[in-house]
């Protein structure tokens, strides 16, 4: 399995663009997967500078409907006309953040995606296998009341604002030989719930590698040491974290698991 970070908040490397967002290019077997697209066309620029061809990507998987994960989709669709795009229908909900009582739209940028890209979009409600070794997990079970701070995230239900339950969130589970790889976007439903769901889906076998954002902020950041103790029980070989995990979250993870935690910045590349 090979991974390239096309978009992250942090960037190292001449010619690359960093932005608040996340996008991973994953190569496994003969397949190429784009997991999220960042918020702008930065992924196209960065792929070009890293000599990564996005025209032959097979699948796009969108973790949820926030602009910083699906905003680069329009730029991608301009260069790739064959990839299938998987997401949950609720990703199209009108998503907003509320700060100082001011609403900010943070949802899907494409105006008529289903009408304009009929053949590309595949809406899924249940766990979906793309191949024998690639599976999208759509049902994240709630095993614990997580401390992830989602208090400023809302969706518009008819004319009312309601707290976003993140029913559009999904994660990606890959297998190569006896190894397993988990990809998450922001873990709004909580990384512990995601890992426990993955453990159940993986026939009670440990997940070896975890990639993505964990949304360590607010109340969770204040209780992070206790939270991280629970992560220890999963036996994960390595965390490749980025984006909404935050710098504070990254360093505290690194202190707790010094040999197992890596930051997947824009331009990061790893083969496992």
Give a structural overview:
It is a single chain. This protein has 272 residues and is α/β, with parallel strands linked by helices. The chain has a single domain, classed as 4-Layer Sandwich (Metallo-beta-lactamase, Chain A), CATH 3.60.15. Helices cover 20% and strands 29% of the residues. It contains eight helices and 18 strands. It has helices spanning 42-49, 67-70, 73-77, 113-116, 191-201, 218-222, 224-231, 247-256, and strands at 2-7, 23-28, 31-35, 59-61, 84-87, 95-99, 102-105, 121-123, 128-131, 134-137, 153-157, 160-163, 171-176, 179-184, 209-212, 238-241, 261-263, 269-271. It has a seven-stranded mixed sheet with strand order 8-5-4-3-2-1-18. Strands 9-10-13-14-15-16-17 form a seven-stranded mixed sheet, covered by helices on one side. A four-stranded antiparallel sheet has the order 7-6-11-12, with no helix packed on it. A hairpin with a 2-residue loop joins β13 (171-176) and β14. The chain starts with a strand and ends with a strand.
């Amino acid at each position: 399995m090979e991974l390239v970070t096309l978009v992250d908040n942090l960037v190292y490397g001449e010619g690359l663009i960093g932005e608040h967002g996340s996008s991973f290019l994953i190569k496994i077997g003969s397949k190429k997967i784009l997991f999220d697209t960042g918020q702008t066309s930065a992924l196209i620029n960065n792929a070009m500078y890293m000599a990564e061809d996005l025209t032959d990507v097979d699948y796009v998987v969108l973790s949820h409907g926030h602009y910083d994960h699906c905003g680069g989709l329009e730029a991608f669709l301009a260069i790739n006309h064959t990839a299938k795009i998987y997401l949950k229908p609720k990703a199209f909900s009108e998503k907003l953040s509320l700060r100082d009582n001011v609403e900010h739209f943070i949802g899907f940028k494409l105006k008529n995606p289903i009408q304009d890209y009929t053949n590309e979009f595949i809406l899924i409600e249940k766990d979906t296998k793309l191949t024998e070794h690639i599976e999208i997990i759509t049902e994240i079970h709630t095993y614990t009341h997580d401390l992830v701070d989602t208090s400023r995230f809302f969706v518009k239900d008819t004319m009312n604002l309601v707290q976003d339950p993140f029913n559009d969130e999904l994660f990606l589970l890959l297998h190569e030989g006896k190894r397993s790889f988990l990809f998450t976007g922001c873990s709004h439903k909580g990384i512990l719930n995601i890992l426990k769901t993955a453990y159940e889906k993986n026939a009670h076998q440990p997940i070896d590698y975890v990639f993505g954002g964990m949304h360590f902020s607010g109340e969770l950041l204040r209780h992070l040491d206790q939270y991280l103790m629970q992560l220890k029980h999963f036996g994960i070989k390595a965390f490749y974290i980025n984006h909404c995990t935050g710098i504070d979250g990254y360093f505290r993870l690194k202190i707790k698991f010094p040999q197992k935690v890596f930051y997947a910045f824009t331009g990061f590349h790893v083969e496992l």
